[in-house]
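Hey, can you fold this?
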Amino acid sequence: MLELNDFTYARRMYVLDMESLEIHRLRYDIIYVYKMLFGLVDFKFEEYVTLRANSATPGHEYKLLVNYSRLNIRKQFFTERVVTVRNDL
């Protein structure tokens, strides 16, 4: 009889009907961005992200624009991770 340890991570998630850690983290990141946008958490959102004034692309009016930074380490920040995904909703 096979045990869960014999399966790959993706297969275990499928068998257990669970989402991957990456999807779980992304979901809660998006929820947190929503809370920041509408002032439901105490966080200085404007210091890191600004709302796009006029967006030529269709979609919602809450498109985000990440403030420019010359540092490569910034690519790993929370804002960099979620802005593209959030704007694609």
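Oh, and this one too while you're at it.
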Amino acid sequence: MNETTQVLACRGVRGATTADTNDPEEILLRTRQLLGLLIRRNHLKKEDICSAVFSMTSDLDSEFPALAARQLGWFDVPLMCVRELEITGSLPRCIRILLHWNTTKTADEIVHIYVRDAEHLRPDMGDLPPVNWEALETWLEEHLDDSVKSNLRK
């Protein structure tokens, strides 16, 4: 292989956030925000996503977090939701995502995202730029599936 050859590999992209309450809309909002950040910071395209695993702590049980990916149009991506292990002292109301992504990027080029109270899970990743939540919400609204937009307006 010469220096210009790029190797396509399946890479893991991780992220975590927290919800304020065990409310379906709160869970979907926080999951969409996290997905939006992962997409934007890594320049992800849904056609390059192999699959996604979503986990939540046991204090969140009012909605499937994977629905947020469907709301963003990820209809052809295999999604799975699982329960996070209950470890004494672990972060409450936590939503985690593991994306499997076909990319030419190397592992050290991938940006993993930990926001809100989940920042404490990975203090080594605290050098990310601050999140402009308003700009993120605007971007998310532009990328929601049309059927979801009409339902959210009701």
